[in-house]
């Protein structure tokens, strides 16, 4: 399978099948308990290599960000332009309904009135109606000494509360260090850090901004940020699938 040789229709069906094969009961439990969950082997090694190989091909991207210029860390990334590569578009479309169910449950528990529609096209229409029309899926590249500061990918007033990152490189072979890190700040408590081990092709689902936590008097809201620790050696590529568009 490649991201170029298979038609968009077949690619989306393939993405739907692999997303449906995931253990969503366990994934939902992990998201509710920890704010993150790992989908193992979502992409095959050849798919990872093909997506990573797009990085120098500027025709696929709308913008290029060098993190050090903006205080985001060290490393760089490129935002894809529309139309997205078929496989990335297919995964974005297939993952969204599963995660919308979690997102709506979280909003109900946090007392947030906003509810998300059941399909991604309807949600993107909301984004575009808000003036958020720029695609947000991105391809990140790190070299020795690079890192990504803790942050939140919001991009506008309308933000979907979950996103997905897929590691395209193999730890221990392609790079050392560079762990995915999630931090959570609970009211009147110290921050909690979660380091998520990933292999090439694994995808981590994680909270973008807030999530509910069960307390003694009901649910309360916690704030999350994510980043990548310092790369010790080698090169690391990741594809980020963000479900809301940007202004």
From TrEMBL:
InterPro entries: DUF2086. It holds the Pfam family Oxygenase-NA. This is 2OG-Fe(II) oxygenase.
